[in-house]
Amino acid sequence: MPDLRLSMVSYINAKPFQLGLEQSGLINEIELLLEVPSESARKLQEREVDIALVPAASLREIPSAEIITNFCIGADGEVASVGLFAELPVEELTHIYLDYQSRTSVQLLKILLHEYWQKDVTFLKAYPGYENDIKGTKGGLIIGDRAIQQKGDFQFNYDLSAYWKAHTELPFVFAVWVANQSIDTTFEKRLEEAFKLGMTQKERVIDFYRKEYEQYLDVEHYFQENIEYQLNPEKLRALDLFLLKINQLESRSIA
Length: 255
What we know:
alpha/beta; 2 domains
């Protein structure tokens, strides 16, 4: 039985991490679970796993949460896989479906609606297939691979990372690697090296998914220009600001 249980998202943007674990051999020493972001966060919070790639907004809810490694899923401008989709411009929307797979994107949308667009709407709980009900004055937040596949289906697609950049002049951090307990330093270094190895495997991911996604996305551009994996000081500042804005937004809701 592996000593550590690790959970990560099954989306295309996390594949370099998975390849790094496989190529380094570290995959043989852990139990790896592939989930949607919200489930990875829940399992880490409830100690069903030891390490997870979790939505940034979940950091506040995980006991003893500790960010590990210098890797994340982030973007400096357009991300292409997190968007508000609609038939009408955001100014004309009255209702928005909130994607059930990640709280980070939900919180990001709420912040932008309040601070950037200064727009009040009624939020609707999403469900499998809700994308088909995005019509008229009802918009929808869609994330991950589904967002990529929906890009050409709606007249309006607001890339939330790009609007965060316009609003704050900072990049955005969607997910970070987090442990819910103290992790052996040697293992953390090996995990870091595995992820570094994974970053050298992006061309393999691009070649594998190029044909599958060609009608939706320039996969090479997505990995080379949209997604950023290094958790640098600027991204840490952006993460702190995002968490602060969540607290401010929730305080206004309570007041």
